[in-house]
Design a protein that fits this description.
about 425 residues; alpha/beta; Lyase, Ornithine Decarboxylase, Chain A, domain 1; TIM Barrel; 8-stranded mixed beta sheet; 8-stranded parallel barrel; elongated; binds pyridoxal-5'-phosphate
Length: about 425
């Protein structure tokens, strides 16, 4: 096996969790004890205090007037959404299923917005009945909402999701610019605004979301300032003043070797400038950021137990009871072009003196079921607990749990 080079880039330190007596501590509980409390492996654990701390830090770094929304597709666990609903200013949902979770969590309907391509009639009816804001993404949606208003006497609250004429540069996932299924092309928005006026829907503003998982503050600043300029231009065709301006988000977290923590300072400074301009040029507008993984990703771990250890032609494999069926992104199969390792540790051997190069695989009969590819980790044995960090977003619900029929994974909020 090829030795790892000393100069290889390293993962950002995962020091958000304490270590006590060689054991990782989650929500104040040692990992072994937590596993016993949960009663099974594999599981996901999310740390309440870390969720709270993240929001506090963000509020510190961003202007007070900018509202924070949680894009709950990152992690829709009801208890976690309930915790966050008390800390953020609004929840963004992407289906009627998510809408139910947000309402059950106690989020105020006024502060819930609904985006997503292909919203169906029944979902739109639920949204109107709930009194939430619908980010319309097509001419059909406007027509459906008008018909729902005629039938029920309830006026739909709408914002227009704009597919901008620029991209969020160096994003993990681009969701605006060029030809996209999301939103309505900026060029077509004036016509759509005319339809909204004709249908007498309650127009509230604009939603722009250029992309996600970005670690370059200058790219985020650039997209936000272009989004603001675009909104100013489009506001000229709006039937009423803009009251809601969602500038997107895209704040990334470090997953792979060499990736840094996102520097919030330049983003906060640029947003302060935008907020000052908005106060003059769009005086009724509430500025909103919608963040998913940045709020929850670093507060979560995935825990799986070593079942077997074997050596194949000089390479050591740890075989775990969990794998890609629970954590597709850590296996490298959720949108990554080149597979890279997530930050991983042996959670009950955090103070180990010696490390060894190992690969950690899951129990599935496919070579894709790889959680760590030749990483330097503490010497581990069956029964030890493998921890995958940065797992609070796009884990549990973004994985094909039924694939191969293994037992289900569970989630706890600690
Ligand atoms: C997915 C999504 C988000 C959240 O993205 P993160 O990378 O998790 O922050 C926000 N807004 C919209 C419209 C999305 O589709």
């Amino acid at each position: 096996m090829k030795p790892l080079e000393r100069t290889a880039p390293r993962h950002a330190p995962m020091d958000q969790f304490a270590v006590q007596d060689g054991e990782l501590v989650v929500g104040g509980i040692g990992l072994g004890r937590l596993a016993a409390r949960v009663g099974q492996t594999p599981f996901y654990a999310y740390d309440r205090q870390l969720l709270t701390r993240r929001i506090t830090e963000l509020r510190h770094a961003l202007p007070e007037t900018v509202k924070l929304h949680y894009a709950m597709k990152a992690n829709p666990m009801p208890a976690l959404v309930g915790h966050l609903a008390r800390l953020v200013d609004g929840i963004d949902v992407a289906s009627a299923g998510e809408l139910k979770v947000a309402l059950d969590a106690g989020a105020a309907p006024r502060e819930i917005s609904f985006a997503g391509p292909g919203k169906q009639r029944a979902e739109l009816q639920q949204a109107v009945a709930a009194g939430i804001l619908v980010n319309v993404e097509s001419f059909r949606e406007v027509a459906e909402l008008a018909a729902i208003g005629d039938q029920t006497g309830c006026t739909a609250r709408v914002a227009v999701r704009v597919n901008p004429d620029f991209e969020l540069k160096s994003s993990g996932m681009k969701m605006g610019g060029g030809a996209k299924q999301f939103g309505v092309d900026a060029e077509q928005v004036p016509e759509l605004l005319g339809r909204i006026a004709d249908a007498e829907l309650a127009f509230e503003g604009f939603h722009l979301f250029a992309g996600s998982q970005n670690l370059r503050p200058e790219a985020i600043v650039d997209a936000q300032s272009k989004s603001f300029e675009l909104a100013l231009r489009l506001a000229e065709s709006a039937p009423s003043p803009v009251r809601f301006l969602n500038l997107g988000g895209g704040f990334g977290i470090p997953y792979f070797p060499g990736e840094p923590q996102l520097d919030l300072a330049p983003i906060g400074a640029a947003l302060a400038t935008i907020a000052e301009r908005a106060a003059k040029e769009l005086p009724e507008a509430q500025l909103v950021l919608e963040l998913g993984r940045y709020l929850v990703g670093e507060a979560g771990i995935y825990v799986t137990r070593v079942v077997d250890r074997k050596v194949s032609r000089g390479q050591t494999f740890l075989i775990a009871d969990g794998g890609l069926h629970h954590h597709l992104s850590a296996s490298g199969n959720f949108g990554q072009v080149i597979r890279k390792n997530y930050p991983v540790a042996i959670g009950n051997r955090m103070a180990a003196a010696s490390l060894e190069p190992v690969s950690i695989v899951g129990p599935l009969c496919t070579p894709l079921d790889l959680l760590a590819d030749r990483m330097e980790l503490a010497d581990a044995r069956p029964g030890d607990l493998v921890v995958i960090f940065q797992s609070g977003a796009y884990g549990f619900t973004a994985s094909p749990q039924a694939f191969l029929g293994h037992p289900a994974c569970i989630e706890v909020l600690v």
